[in-house]
Each structure stands twice: as structure tokens, then as C-alpha cells.
Amino acid sequence: MSTFSGLNTASTALWAARRGLDVTGQNIANVNTAGYSRQRVDQAAMGGTAVPAIHSVSTEVGGGVSADKVQRVRDAFLEARAQLESSATSRLTAEADALSQIEDAFREPGDKGLQSMLSDVWSGFSDLSDSPLTPASRSQVLERLDVLADGIRTTRAALDQQWGQTRDGLQALVSDVNTAAASVADLNGAIRQATLSGLPVNELSDRRDALVLQLSQSIGATAAPRADGVVDVTVGGTSLVAGATVTAVRLAGSDDADGIGTDAPRLVTQPGGSTLRTGGAAAGQLTALTRTVPGYRTQLDEFARSVATAFNTAHTAGYDLTGVQGQALFDDGAGGTAITAANLTVRPLTPEQVAAARTAPAGTGGRPSADGDNADAFFQLSLDPAGLDASYRRLVVALGVESSVATRNAEVQSVVSAQVDAARESVSGVSLDEEMTTMMSFQHAYSAAARMVSAIDQALDTLISRTGLVGR
């Protein structure tokens, strides 16, 4: 190796050390940047001439070091696992949130819930059976029935509002998904161009991977890398992003909870109209729209019809103060439609029309009967093991169990997702302690390379300035 070739070796060493310091500084600068992946300089030894020229023999040790490539420190397996686990976490969280909102709508347990209102009704009929001629006890029964009907309508309105808000939230999520997918396609195109031109793409890749993870959380997307640096994004086997081409998503189906039986909400591709097998938050919200909220609306409607049937049947079996047989307490439904929790209404009866007696008045002197047996029959309904109280308790208990299971599943999945994220962070995250150690290593390497330049300079000075001076 000639002395001047040693300068070239030292120069590459200085360049490699400076390159390492630059990359280390970039890592330290982005220690708090979300989605940033730690970068590392790939150093490779530059060998000497492998095949010498004719009539010459090369004994060079090597040509120094190459530090042109800067790689992101990533684990492909952990990245794919993070996409799957984040999708599952978002789905379970959305389902648990939907059930929690349904619990809020029923307001159980508490003095504002339907169970408390129903208990007040039974108590009112018990008071009426003890004093059937008292106007206050008769008015109290009607008022408490009206409160119960209003509570049922309020619960149904809360469920309807939750359904509408969930659909609006899903519509907003679809808009975000289309925006993120378009950004991934744009970044794919930019990364391909930069890769072909030999330009660095690490920061662009970080931005794209963050968007892919966002799509995983939103819609359950997964990514598959290509050889040219781009990724293809799919949702349930359907292509969402293929290179620089993106397929839009839209929300189809009924915008009314009553129409889901024939036209259930779903996500479809646009164009094409193919239904997507979604994951993530979208899957949880679709479950709430098509199964969870409609299921409890149906059960509440059945309870409202049971309330109307039970009370109407019991009331028509008695007689009011004037000796007239009792009328139905609840309307059959607006415009002849079936009774639901949304239209359950107490008929405008007067206190005298409350059928508290089991038998008609005797008719002597036109005096009303003090019989309160029919009011007592109302109270006996509360003791029926298969009656209204029992059916409502079954509904509330089933809701509580389902919500508890969903919450527990979401919590367990959150722990799993957190463990995967911690594993990813341990690989691709920036550790200031590690970066400081690396920085000191490159600093000493730079100092050593500089010292090598000084040594070669001294050798050249001796060779040039002092050779041939002996004997002068």
C-alpha cells in the first residue's frame, strides 16, 4: 500500500465516522417523533484489487470503508403483528363502548331507571287497593303510568340517537380511511421514484407505515411489501392500495335503524360495490349498527308491548267509579300501528275512569263501590315470576353480562397490543442511552482517523523533506 493510498483509507474512515455522527444526531433529534424508526449506518469494508493487472502483483490490504447506506431498524414480523393486534383492539373497544352507551340509556341501576319507575307503579296500585275512593290515589296511578311510558320512550330515543351517532361516526371514519389510503398511494409513488434514483426514503417510509397502522386501527388493513420499496394494502383480501393506485371506500345501507333488516349498513368499494370484510373500529361500529343496538331496541319494544298488554288486560277486567267496565290504559299505537317503545302512550283517562273495582257498584243510591280488588290484581302482577319485572330484569342482566364480557375482552386485548408495541419500540425506538454510546464510538473513530491522517502526513514529510540529505 502506498503512503498516498493510506490517505484515501483515512478519508473514508473520516467520512464513515462523520456519517455515523450525522445519523446518530438524526435519531436523537427525533426521539419524541411519533412513528420515527431508529436509523443505522451500514458500514462495509472496501477490499483491494481482486484481479491484478498483467505483470503486476497487488498486496493492498483494502480500500477503507463504505458508509453510503442508512437503514431503518425495523422488524417485519412485529410490524405485521402490530397491524393485527391494533385492529383487534380497536374492534373490541368499539364494541365495548357501544354496550356501555346502551347501559347509560337504560340507566340501571338507579332511581331514574325503568325498574324504579315500574316499582312506583306497583306501589301506586297497592295504595289504590287500600283506598279506592280517594281521588289522589287514582291520580297518582295515572301519573306514575305516564312516567313509566315516558321513561320507556326516553330509553328508546336514546338508543335511536346512539344508532344515528354511530352511523355518523362510521361515515367520518370512512372519509378518514379514504384520505389515509390516498396518502399511502402518494407516498408509494414518491418512494418508488426516490428508490430508483438512489435517494434516501427512510422518513417517507416512516410516514407511510404510520398511515398503514392508522388504517389497521380504522378498518383492519394489512400491508405487504414489494421489491421496489412500495407496499400493497388490503382489507379482508380486497385491495385498498396497490402501488400508487387507490380504491375508495363508501358506507352503504339504510340510514334508518328500522331499515337494517333489508338493507344493513356495510362498507363497499367504490367503484365496484364489493362488500369489505372489515376489521378495526369499523367492524366494531358495524356490529353496533347491525346487531347490538337493534337487538336491544327490539327487546325494549317487546317489553313495551308486554307492559301495554298486561295493563290493558288487567284494567279491562275491572270497573271504574261509575260502574263502567275499564278501558285500555295504553293506546294501541299511533294510526293503528303496532305498539313500540317509541309510541307507548297512556290514554287520557280521568281519575274516575281508573278501574280499581273487580265488581260493578251495587247501585243503591248511586254510591260508588269501595271495592279495590282489581287494583290489588295489578299489584299481584309484580309478584309474577314470569311477569314484567322478571322479563325486564332478564334484559338488564343480559346487557350487564354482555357489557362486562366485552369490556374484559377489550382490556385483555389492550394488554396484548401494548406488549407488541413495547416489542416494536425496543427494536425500532430511539434510546438516548444507546445513541450517546454510539455517538461516543463514532467520535473516537473520527479522532482515530484524524490521527491516522496526521501520522501519514508526518511520514510523507519525512519522505519528501529528508530523503537524499545524507552526505550533504
TrEMBL record:
Residues 427-465 form the Flagellar basal-body/hook protein C-terminal domain. InterPro entries: Flag_bb_rod_N, Flg_bb/hook_C_dom, FlgK, FlgK_helical. GO terms for biological process: bacterial-type flagellum assembly. The keyword RNA-binding does not apply. The keyword Secreted applies. GO terms for cellular component: bacterial-type flagellum hook; extracellular region. GO terms for molecular function: structural molecule activity. Keywords: Bacterial flagellum, Cell projection, Cilium, Flagellum, Secreted. Residues 99-330 form the Flagellar hook-associated protein FlgK helical domain. It holds the Pfam family FlgK_D1. It comes from the Bacteria. It is found in: Bacterial flagellum; Secreted. Its main location: other. Residues 7-36 form the Flagellar basal body rod protein N-terminal domain. Belongs to the flagella basal body rod proteins family. This is Flagellar hook-associated protein 1.
